[in-house]
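Researcher: Let's run the pair from yesterday's discussion. Sequence first, then tokens, for each.
Model: Starting with the first of the pair.
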Amino acid sequence: MVPISAFLTIALVVLLFLLILGGAGVYLLVKVGKKATKKARKVTTRVVSHVAAMDPGDAGEAERMRLDLRREVSITRQAVEHATQGGWGLGDLPHLVAEIESHARQLDAQLGMYAQQSRVSAYVDHAALARLREHHAKLTTACARIRADLLNDQMAHSASGIEEIRSRTDLEIEARRQAPVLDPLDQIDELYNRTMIDRARPEEPR
């Protein structure tokens, strides 16, 4: 018979193993739940922003500027990251984009505050909206100029490579045109003629 102490040891080991599995399962569930919660919050915020942007009043205009600003900053950051991965010399441009993102976050918060105040009160400062429009225009214009400059650099680099390929293609085609292409039948005919000429010649006296 198995001693009671050995049986208790086995039972404790199995229980400990089950507890470890249970703890790992709870940890994974919590981690997945947090990620799902973050994604749900992002989706909810995005939907709310798009719905609020449909408002025809000042609040809707502020929300539309927020969406537009976020889009411009996002695609500009992606353009800079793509250029960095491609090994382009960007100088201080990444730091400049980081500063633009910082100002854009501040402007986004200001636009959100203005939109909220416009929805709950009829007494809003329209001069403030004009200043917000001006700041929005400056930041979005800066983003557009950065993307245009990056695109021009990439097109100039591509143009030099394409021009090199065109020149090499022209040289290769010209070389092929100059090289004589012999017909195998002509070669056989020439060889036959030479053979007949050699046979027709009288043999030299020895």
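Model: Moving on to the second of the pair.
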Amino acid sequence: MAAPPLLLPEGALLVRVPAGDPGWVHQLPAVPGVPEAAEVTVTLGRPELLPVDTGPLRERGYRIIGAASASLPIGDVVDLLVPGALRTTAPTWWLELLGRAERVFDPGLGPVQRMLHAELSLHMRALSEDH
């Protein structure tokens, strides 16, 4: 039986960014308006990508909310759930983030939700806990 569709933030996109270098945390552009702006949620492609100190990442407006299972790693990547409203209000930041992206997924599409359901569920759980 297929999992029910997730109700994602309007216009949200999942942005996959390479994270093979330990300095990946510092390569992400700072989210405009931090600390007042909503944080961008991040999942790790494998647990070993967790930085020793997450402070710099939080200061830049990102929050790690989980990692791919050690038995089913995605690889040396991080996935960021970017709300449509943030893309609209911060186009320069969005273009800079896209310049670092390896892939961009539209989680509103059924096949993407089926393929990345577990990961998208982590993002949705974190966002629902914020409200």
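Researcher: Give me one sentence on the second I can quote.
Model: The longest helix spans residues 117-130.
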